[in-house]
Amino acid sequence: MSIFQAWLSNESIRFRVRALKARFRDQTAEFDVIRQHVRSGDIVCDIGANKGSFIFWLSRWCGTGRVVAFEPQPEFARRLAEVCRAIGLDNVRVEAKAVYSHSGDQELFVPAGHSPGASLTHKAAEASSFTTLSVPVVALDDYFDANDKVTLLKIDVEGAELGLFKGAERMLRRHAPLLVFECENRHLASGHVGEVFSYLETLGYQGSFVCRDRLLPIAEFDAAVHQRQDGEWFWKKRDYCNNFVFRKAPARP
How do 214-217 and 92-95 pair as beta strands? Predict the structure, then answer.
């Protein structure tokens, strides 16, 4: 198949339509922050890549650098690798792995219909039907060399955020990548989103949250208001806020 035919395939068209919807409709604030930050030559990560709505843009923006996309669901990872290869996103490497606090193997909970998304830590009681897969997991500090300057972590891991950050502590301290991630009380088997924020603050990060396509200071975030769990499909309401941007605070003179 020629690259022209690949670009016109159904899989390629769906991949690019998802990218366009994410960039210009669903997550404009997040993409604006990423676009301002990423430069050609950067190493960036898409963790919990799923169907790849971020990958197209990350590949373009990091140019001569590389994108490492982690997706533990084997079928999704295979499709991502195939479409990236077919349309010439040669700077993308797809890893069929989950990212967590340690390296090894672990069970991944996959709810029927993929809603909510697959998770290493998801409370099984929240899904009426689910399957489990044994998947390889890796800590970022094990995957990357100490001198690999990763500049961005885009993260969607459905409740495994704190473990992921703990497994990347060396990277966070040494290279201070921009963090763009989802985090929700409803996905945490125990604890609170504030524990994730507090951990990042101990590493010198300052946070914002996305509310109605605007970035607001994390000090204004109140889970009782911004992640209120009232009514059916509460997480789809416009005032529900689950996307966060953390960046390393400037060094004091």
Answer: unpaired
Q: What's the rounded Cα separation, in Å, for the pair 67 and 46? A: 7
Please indicate, yes or no, whether the overall pTM of this predicted structure exceeds 0.85.
Answer: yes
In one letter, which amino acid is 113? G
Q: Which residues on neighbouring strands pair with residue 155, listed in sequence order?
A: 47, 181
pLDDT of 183 > 50? The answer is: yes
**Model pLDDT for residues 197-213, shown as the tens digit of each residue:** 999 999 999 999 999 99
d(CA 215, CA 29) in angstroms, rounded, equals 7
8 A C-beta contact, residue 98 and residue 121: no
CA–CA dist 200, 223 (Å, integer): 17
Do 244 and 161 form a contact (C-beta atoms < 8 A)? no
| Domains, the chain, ordered by start | 3-248 (3.40.50.150)
- C-beta separation of 122 from 133 below 8 A: no
pLDDT in tens, 85-135: 999 999 999 999 999 999 999 999 888 765 567 888 765 445 567 888 999
Backbone angles phi and psi of 202, in degrees to 5: -65, -20
| pLDDT bracket for residue 60 (50, 70, 90) | very high
Instruction: Kindly give, in sequence order, each residue whose CB lies less than 8 Å from that of residue 215, ignoring residues fewer than 6 positions away.
Output: 29, 33, 208, 209, 245
Q: Label the pairing between strands 98-99 and 205-211.
A: unpaired
Question: d(Cα 218, Cα 222) in Å, to the nearest integer?
Answer: 9
Give the tokens for residue 5.
Answer: 């035919």
Strands (E), 48-149: 66-70, 92-95, 98-99, 104-111, 130-138
What would the two tokens of residue 212 be?
């109605």
Residue 201: enclosing H or E segment and its boundaries?
helix 193-202
